[in-house]
Amino acid sequence: MRIRELVPEDVEEADRLRRVAFGSIAEPSLRPGRRGLLAEVDGRAAGVLTIKDMHQFWGGSPVPMGGIGGVAVDSWARGRGVAGALLDAALRDLRECGQAVSVLYATVPAVYRSRGWDAAGVFEHLEFPLDRMPAGARVPTRPGGEDDLQALHACYVDLASTVNGLLDRAAPTFDVADVLKLDVVTVVPGHDGEVRGYLTAARGPAGLRVFDLVGRDVATQLGLLRELGSWAGVLDRASVRVTDPAVTGLLTNQAIEYTVTASTWLLRVVDLPAAVAARGWPAARWLKPAVVDLDVVDEHAPWHAGRQRLVVEDGAVRVEPGGSGAVRLHARALGPWFSGMHDSHALRRAGLLDGDAALLDRLVGAPGTPRLADYF
Fold first, then answer.
1. Cα-flanking dihedrals φ and ψ of residue 37, to 5°?
2. Which of 4, 171, 272, 339 could form a disulfide with 120 if both were Cys (CB 3.0 to 4.6 A apart)?
3. 329 phi and psi, to 5 degrees?
């Protein structure tokens, strides 16, 4: 088996593999901000995966992240270890490209867990009856246009930097102008070109799909919810993608019936020292100097396996080689711990951690459920 970089000449075959695996493809295998790997068996294309260049907010800091998607293996090649070989190659590629963590949505979780990815957050949609939207005061709104794009993105980033797991939606992987292709782009203008909030949505056969409902304050949020409620004469319900958990609270506090659809995404720490250095650690400023001696069990990322010492000092956190290895961590424990999705007690019960890891819990604190608002 040969694993190599995906090149433009491979795109037609790579897209065929993905189309057969998933029934359709949303976008080509190669585009700005994306690279790929191709597996060949006996000289024939057998499998493919793509990696998106992203940054994901953790503790207020954007951490370089590789978003893995489009993992497809041709039917004749299944059962030969193609997917595992692609993931092993992807781990090396991610490290070489400086992407300290990786995220994916798993259709076959066992394959990815065998390589160290594990549950770290949610991707949620809420479905609500439109005639029961909160009755907030009307706020001045207007259609969004090209002149609003920079301010609209700044409004999103201000929110995203406070919610663990959200992406920064930076170029080239994301083009903020794509938002103008949607059916609904409403902005709440502020002072000096600022955007106080915005609503984006698409109208389809299944109804209204809200992608973002973001406001810098509660009045703006309630005003946008009021506008959303104006669809009640046309539609019964709307599906709202959860970007801001504060908006979710406004909706669910109305004591109305609603449906939650949640997908779990998996995170993999690719390079522990680099990931810890890139992450924000707000709780560290309140902690006294301390260390946790780790023994990292990770056969697929040997560069950070073995004894590592996590050091908290002067409000900063770092990982350096050495220590006694008193706390044993499996590769699958690193992602859920890094995200704060699971504490050491849950990881211990799952057989992924041994030893006293109370300091690890204090570092991540309780910032709320990590979430993504983008699917890839």
1. -125, 140
2. 339
3. -120, 125
Domains and CATH numbers, the chain: 2-99 (3.40.630.30), 134-253 (3.40.630.30), 267-364 (3.30.1050.10)
How far, in whole angstroms, is CA 362 from its chain's centroid?
23
Which tokens in the block code for residue 250?
Answer: 């406004």
Write the single-letter amino acid at 147.
Answer: D
Q: Where are the alpha helices (H) located in 78-185, listed in sequence order? A: 82-96, 109-113, 149-160
Question: Which 3 state secondary structure label does DSSP give 219?
Answer: helix
- CA dist 239 and 258 (Å) reads 10
How big, in percent rounded to 5, are the helix, strand and coil portions of the chain? 35, 35, 30
Q: Give the position of tokens 């995203």.
A: 160
Identify the pLDDT of residue 132.
79
Location of structure tokens 């350096």: 320
Count CB atoms within 10 A of the CB of residue 321: 10
pTM given for the model = 0.94
Inter-axis angle of helices 245-252 and 218-229, to 10 degrees? Answer: 60
259 and 227 Cβ atoms separated by less than 8 Å: no
163-210 pLDDT, tens per residue? 999 999 999 999 999 999 999 999 999 998 899 999 999 998 888 999
Q: Inform me whether the pLDDT recorded for 255 exceeds 70.
A: no
> Residue 215: how many CA atoms within 13 Å on its side-chain side?
22
